[in-house]
């Protein structure tokens, strides 16, 4: 993908806001929510850890709109996965979208610039999530725990939370070097309110990601041993494998042998392929995690508390339109957006899915050829994501799949890393 160059204006703004406007530097916040009381207890630490993880799935503190984390972009557009998916997929010869939002067709037309709101939105979303991680890690220091009288098992648990935050930070730095090249570089040691941070070169940030992941990996929970949706050793190995796979792009030196080494660590960790490929994209796909599953690291959604227009809500609603019955997909209505170019169905000898279950296309009323990208019926639609469960219910004497918990917001989790056919497949470049 074409590298995007953006400025460090976000940090300049943050620095300006944080700088004191008065000579009294001992002022206390006027509201009652401060780090002193938020982090006063071990339970408080875990609640903030929830925010650090939740930033991958949520767009703000209210949801689905009205109090977004990232300003300058519609909150519904500002979801991490939705932005990442667009940057990764719409810029290829696989996918198109029919909408006319300013800048969205730039991906297909291959003429995006640094002013593209979707690319700046993803850039600031990743930096925002890094900022959350930095703040959380800073509060997990031995000095902070000592000040708050937290010790023993509680302190050890909090140190584990910090290691997970370091993984999440490394993940976002990988996104930034993969898409943008040389991002501003900040850690928990960066002075808040100081000068704008320097850019790190791709090679420098690559080395930092590698060092961080190798530093935390020995003390991370074993594969399958952490709570669902939280990082473990296998998540570290999978991210290292992805990092090494593209090392020549990032640093000029290939590390394919290291990519094989860490992929094998994942393969040997006991993950097994799900017996039915289509179960991976259903509302109860959390069943694909654990010692008998293939999910390594996921973004979790439940359709009730994760109310936003990104993530799998986007992946489920955007491909539904034309003559497609929305109820079949467990949703109240489609958004008539994404389709595939003829290149994707062209890799299958049978696009009906009868011989290869990965072929999940809707053809009725759809044209294989795309004459007009903005017309939904130009291009085959995709039926991959369905907000329904494996089990069935009876409706009007007919057995139908049981729906997810909400028809408006998806109950499907996103697999960011999974084992696939004897190798590690990184779903951070998600397929349609």
Explain the overall architecture.
- With 432 residues, this protein is an alpha+beta fold.
- It folds into two domains: 1-22 and 33-219, Serine Threonine Protein Phosphatase 5, Tetratricopeptide repeat (Alpha Horseshoe), CATH 1.25.40.390; 311-412, no CATH class.
- 35% of the residues lie in helices and 9% in strands.
- It contains 13 helices and nine strands.
- The chain has helices at 9-18, 35-38, 42-54, 80-89, 106-109, 117-139, 142-147, 152-179, 202-216, 233-245, 247-251, 256-267, 311-317, and strands spanning 95-97, 295-299, 338-340, 361-362, 381-382, 388-395, 398-403, 414-420, 423-426.
- It is globular.
- Mean pLDDT is 88; it is low at 1-23 and 418-432.
How are the SSEs placed, and which strands pair?
Layout: H1 9-18, H2 35-38, H3 42-54, H4 80-89, E1 95-97, H5 106-109, H6 117-139, H7 142-147, H8 152-179, H9 202-216, H10 233-245, H11 247-251, H12 256-267, E2 295-299, H13 311-317, E3 338-340, E4 361-362, E5 381-382, E6 388-395, E7 398-403, E8 414-420, E9 423-426
